[in-house]
Amino acid sequence: MPEALARGVADLFPCGAAAGSASDGDQQLAARLQEAASEGRPLRIKLGIDPTGTDIHLGHSILFRKLRAFQDEGHTAVLILGDFTARIGDPTGKSATRVQLSAAEVEANAETYLQQLGQGQDPAHALLDFETPGRLEVRRNSDWLSGLDLPEVIELLGTTTVGQMLAKEDFANRYGSGTPISLHEFLYPLLQGYDSVAISADLELGGTDQKFNVAMGRDLQRHFGQRPQFAMLLPILPGLDGVQKMSKSLGNTVGLAEDPLSMYSKLEKVPDAVLSDYITLLTNLDLAGLPANPRERQKALALEITGQRHGLAAAQAAQADAAKLVGGAAGVGAADADVPEASMDGVNFPAKAFYLLSAIGICSGSSDARRQIQGGGVKLDGIKLADPNQEFAAATELEGKVLQIGKKIFRRLVAS
């Protein structure tokens, strides 16, 4: 199997048949790939995403990068937008029933996902190739799930047991603790699995937390007389804290839509403990060919990923600006650095420092802003803000100055 397809894979199943056996094509992915090549047909590679939010971050991008690797090998990526299943909500990793979204909310989210994945963009800088004929199908699972009638739903329910559902760790934990499980949640793995039947998937991509759902797809394909898909699972990316998984709710993410400076500044501070994982899962860089010094590896990682999203020139400019803003003396480098702007239009002056940080959106709220200032992590043009109650009389006093939180977040203050 090509290195680009095997890189970073945590689990691949099945993979048990002895080489040369008649069932190789159903038991070994390498044999299925060879079989497809000899027949001159691409494999159909499934990746399903539920548009339950608006932002895609680097943790999500691991699966899309692998999908792109299959595209580049000549296979057909089948991207399933779970506009129907998103309205149920994947129970994986949840300790309570998820809030159900409306169809309009899901569709709006789906459109933002496609834009972030590269729809209408040059494939050279897009996460997925939307342009090359035959390389991508974008499907919405409402096309087949919304038309299922009650006998068909009963047939799906008849393919598994309550015991099998309770073998899923999340369900087992909730059942054991007495936390309610709604019956519609049992439908989610079945409907997600039926997606594999609807598109005749040869292989499904998923995170290691999706093993139950992906295996369900194999079971349903057998039930409906199809060759079962292979399952390729990839690791869950740790967040910028290096401990918990990357999650917007934990504030440890790097978003695909972030500006070059923010992206570079965050990535060049990735903890040493997870640096190799980031390089392996988010780049094609050869670990053996990189400097042994962790600091140089951080810079190489940050430059590579920022370049993937924004081009090499923008990444190099971000690298230079980050060095000016973090390494210079007070105010040095801030004037000519390309820093994302933050409007003060919504700020009521005179304004205290903690209120300013909250009002321009650089902190999640007044309490967060106070904590950041008291912790010594906030600077204005390189000068530390020590008092959350420091007052600024007017926007003109701050116009053009760079507000910094830690070594990762920079915003140039503008009046409009």
Question: How does this model look, in words?
Answer:
This protein is an alpha/beta fold and 416 residues long. The protein is built from 17 helices and 13 strands. The strands form three sheets. The protein has a six-stranded mixed beta sheet with strand order 1-6-5-2-3-4, sandwiched between helices. It has a five-stranded mixed beta sheet with strand order 7-13-12-9-10, covered by helices on one side. β9 (378-380) and β10 form a beta hairpin. α12 (260-267) packs antiparallel against α14 (294-310), α12 packs across α15 (312-327) and α16 crosses α17. It starts with a helix and ends with a strand.
Determine the number of helices (DSSP H or I, runs of at least 4 residues).
Answer: 17
Strand coverage percent: 5-15%
Terminus-to-terminus distance: 54 Å
Kindly state the number of beta strands: 13
Order of helices and strands: HEHHEHEHEHHHHHEHEHHHHEEHHEEEEE
Provide the structure class. alpha/beta
What's the shape? globular
Mean of all residue-level pLDDT scores: 89
Low-confidence stretches: none
Strand order of the largest sheet: 1-6-5-2-3-4
Gyration radius (Cα, Å) is 24 Å
